[in-house]
Every structure is written in C-alpha cells, then in structure tokens.
Amino acid sequence: MEIIPCNTCGSSEFKPLFSKSNHKNELFHIVQCIRCSLVQVSPQPSPKEVASYYSEEYFLKRSDRGYDNYFSEGIRNEISRVFGLNLKDLDFQTWEKSLSTTKRCLDVGCAAGYFVDYMQSRGWDSYGMDIAQAPVKFARDKLKLKVEQVDFLEWKPTNVDQFDLITLWASIEHLHKPKETLEKFIHI
C-alpha cells in the first residue's frame, strides 16, 4: 500500500470523503483531490495486491464483496443480456455497421471474458486481459477465449494490436493509474 499523489493533476492535497474496510479488514480511505476533484483510494494497493483480492473464492463464494458463482451459465447469460441492453442504449449497431468487415475489440479488465465472448458472437475478433488468475483461466479453458493475464500498463502491444473498440466494463474505477491507461489507449 502506498499513498500516491492525484493521478490527474499531481496534487498531494486531499479531503477525506469516507472510509471502508475490505474483506481482509484493511481500511481504505476514499479521498477527493482539492485541486481537480478526482476521487481515489488512499492508500492504494499495488496492482499485485489488487490481483490478490480477486482470488477464485471471490468469484465463487457468495459474500457482500463477491459473487455467487460468477462462472455459472446463468450469471454469464444475465451479464450478456445486460451488455446487449447497454449497447442498444448507445445505438452501438449504427456505429458498428460503419466499420470494415474485420472488427477488433479489446476488453481491459475482462474478468471471465463475458464481453469478449459477447463480441465474438457479433462477429468481432475479440481479445481480453485481466490481472486476476481465476477468471482468466476460466475464459481460456472453458470458453476458449483469447484472454491474457496481464496488467494493461505492462502489456506490450505489437504492430498488429490495433483495435476498433477498447472497453473497460466496470474496470476503470479499479485502475492504479487511470490517466496513463487512457493515454496508452491512444497508441493502440
């Protein structure tokens, strides 16, 4: 855990908003930057520490901080249904039709790859990445998806890693360095 300056403006002046304990009884403070109003956790766990919070148990054991078998077909179907509703609200299909026949998608923080799977069902060449081992293993082994266990900021894209769509479904708020992540998107 480390106290870090604001990821947006670099200020070290924050006002406390509230505090919350996690499942390991570690206390986290939610603070707001005095200068730019960004809200962040302080102190922040490292990406490696964050990955440890998302053990297989988190995805399988019902709790106030986890799922009741996130890997079940019922949960997968419900999440896919919600993706469909969200894309419909965004009039995604109109934009999607304007793209070439080869459409590529990257989902950062993809967990078990349900959005990767959803986009493949729409004809997209889809990829995902997540820092948590259990959902990545499920995505690869059970769903046969192209998903990597890697922190996005440590990922080394190649010349062929160009995407029409990059998503962060329920992930941006978990990023250690959101500004750097968004800046890296520009280059892929």
Describe this structure in words.
This protein is an alpha/beta fold. It has two domains: 1-44, N-terminal domain of TfIIb (Single Sheet); 47-185, Vaccinia Virus protein VP39 (Rossmann fold), CATH 3.40.50. The chain contains seven helices and seven strands, in the order βββααααβαβαββα. The strands form two sheets. A four-stranded parallel β-sheet has the order 6-5-4-7, with helices on one face. It has a three-stranded antiparallel β-sheet with strand order 1-2-3, with no helix packed on it. Strand 4 (104-108), helix 5 and strand 5 form a beta-alpha-beta unit. The mean pLDDT is 89.
Q: Characteristics of this structure?
A:
188 residues, alpha/beta, N-terminal domain of TfIIb, 4-stranded parallel sheet, 7 helices, 32% helix, globular
* Total count of strands: 7
Task: Evaluate the radius of gyration.
Answer: 18 Å
Whole-number tally of structural domains = 2
Mean pLDDT: 89
Give the overall form: globular
Which regions have little confidence, pLDDT < 50, spanning 5+ residues? Answer: none
Assign the CATH topology of the largest domain: Rossmann fold
Name the CATH homologous superfamily of the largest domain.
Vaccinia Virus protein VP39
Walk across the major sheet and give the strand order.
6-5-4-7
Task: Estimate what percentage of residues fall within beta strands.
Answer: 15-25%
Which CATH architecture of the largest domain is right? Answer: 3-Layer(aba) Sandwich
CATH secondary-structure class of the largest domain: Alpha Beta
**Topology as a string of helices (H) and strands (E):** EEEHHHHEHEHEEH
Tally of individual helices: 7
Overall helicity = 25-40%
Main β sheet profile: 4 strands, parallel
Distance between the termini: 30 Å
Structural classification: alpha/beta
